[in-house]
Amino acid sequence: MQILIVAATQQEVQPLIDHFCLKEQEKDCSFFSEKVRVLITGVGMVATAYSLTKHVALHRYNLVINVGIAGAFDRNIALGTVVQIGNDCFAELGAEDGDTFLDIFSMGFIRADEFPFSNGKLIPTYTYNDLPIATAITVNKVHGATNSIKAVEQRLHPQVESMEGAAAFYVCLQEKIACAQIRAVSNYVERRNKEAWDIPLAIKNLNEKLIEIVTTN
Known about the structure:
The protein is α/β, with parallel strands linked by helices. It has 5 helices and 11 strands. A hairpin with a 3-residue loop joins strand 3 (30-32) and strand 4.
């Protein structure tokens, strides 16, 4: 199985790169071996969509896995927990009408079940039985204010958030490539409090799982 692992930053997947002694391909910000390639896209939806689309136009894969750290709304998810994303969405794609948010579906730009969406969500086509499933949102601006956190929780009921996940799903679904998303929780979604984060633990646990996946596939 040819696997592409997609990450926003090299830091998030450095242990994987080191473990498999992946060679660097500087022209497209990737690291590779015969079995796996890692693509570093840069942070955010636009960078992810651009880099991933450009890459898969030139290379064929059986599976694309978007990976990285994430913030958790759900306090029942312990820091360092590795989850697979069961569905994702573009949380900010729409318009404000006073205190009400109108998404692109309610605005009539696209039907909620129009491909690649399913009831307004983007659903991965590959899952792992041994990982807990979480509901995600993808944002340009991570949440850090009480009012906005409460509003998005009431509207979308997310458990975790990232800045890239839905973009990776969108590209893969459009290109008909099997896709998954695996995230490790590094912090809780609250007013910015870096002292409470545990990025090293999240990266460690994430990469241990990725090494296991690559080794067994």
